[in-house]
Write a structure and sequence with these properties.
Number of strands: 3
Distance between the termini: 22 Å
Strand order of the largest sheet: 1-3-2
Radius of gyration: 17 Å
Largest sheet: 3 strands, antiparallel
Strand content: 5-15%
Structural class: mainly alpha
């Protein structure tokens, strides 16, 4: 059945990613948070814990545990917003940013290998389909 086959491939792919074969040194969710913080910093923006929860759909209690862990590791810092003192902004510390960039570079090299083996045309065909699937799941109510 097509649904079982799709689910099997989907679970295999997500377990490969989630089992830290792509992300070393940080648990998967911590790496996702670092990715979002790095992109925001690159764009000159700051994110809050609520922003991260909205982007990742991680529960607030789980996000707090992730942020506490990253803070203890010296990867992130929290600071009060200059515009709204009620908000706490998060940023990657220089050491955390360097560590993230190194890990991200390793991930990109693996993705480059995937592109080389699949071929650029296949990947360009696959990308819109993956985006569409992500959008559909993102808009589904459970």
């Amino acid at each position: 059945m097509l649904n079982e086959e799709l689910l099997t491939v989907w679970l295999r792919l997500t377990s490969i990613i989630d089992n830290q074969r792509l992300v070393s040194g940080l648990p998967f969710n911590e790496a996702v948070v670092c990715n979002l913080l790095a992109k925001a910093q690159q764009e000159g923006r700051c994110l809050t814990a609520s922003d991260l929860c909205a982007h990742t759909r991680i529960l607030k209690s789980q996000m707090n545990a992730i942020l506490v862990s990253l803070e203890r590791k010296g990867v992130i810092a929290r600071q009060r917003s200059q515009q709204d003192r009620r908000q706490v902004e998060l940023r990657l510390l220089p050491e955390g940013l360097d560590s993230y960039r190194a890990a991200h570079g390793r991930v990109l090299s693996m993705v480059d290998r995937l592109i080389d083996e699949m071929g650029e045309d296949s990947v360009r065909t696959l990308l819109p389909l993956l985006r569409q699937a992500a959008d559909i799941f993102d808009n589904m109510e459970v």
